[in-house]
Amino acid sequence: MAHILVIDDAPHICTVLTKFLLIEGHSVDSAENGAAGLKLFDLNHYDLVITDVVMPKIDGLEVLTALKQKAATVRIIVMSGGAARLDTQLLLRTAQAMGADRVLPKPLDFWKLQIAVKEVLAGVQ
Ligand SMILES: [Mg+2]
Question: What is the per-residue pLDDT across 24-47, written as a single tens digit (0 to 9) for each?
Fold first, then answer.
């Protein structure tokens, strides 16, 4: 069992992800943007952070940078469906280059998410 932080500005994604991770046996906190997520990260220990990219206040790439500075060993999964002028694959490749352990396109494939969470928590590179 792991303690996981989910950050996404879409409430239904937070809800679905939280339910999924609870069923998988983890404990979960969620935040509606990067600023709220970083605040929670400062208050609690998390084994894994799953973050969206395109969000108000602090976006997912900024979250990734901040988390790496706060805790170099923190494991991070980045998910994105892009935005009007932002290509999904470009955002995900950028997140990967910035040190994300796994990147997943949206809409989420829960089978791929399940594998990603298991592998990242097991320390699979
Ligand atoms: Mg978003």
Answer: 999 999 999 999 999 999 999 999
How far is the centre of ligand 1, averaged over its atoms, from the C-alpha of 125 (Å)?
26
Residue showing tokens 């790439």: 61
- Whole-number Å distance, alpha carbon 98 to ligand 1 midpoint, is 19
What is the reported pTM? 0.97
Taking the centre of ligand 1 as the mean of its atom positions, its distance from the CA of residue 121, in whole angstroms, is 24
**Domains delineated in the chain:** 3-121 (3.40.50.2300)
- Determine contact, residues 46/75, Cβ cutoff 8 Å: no
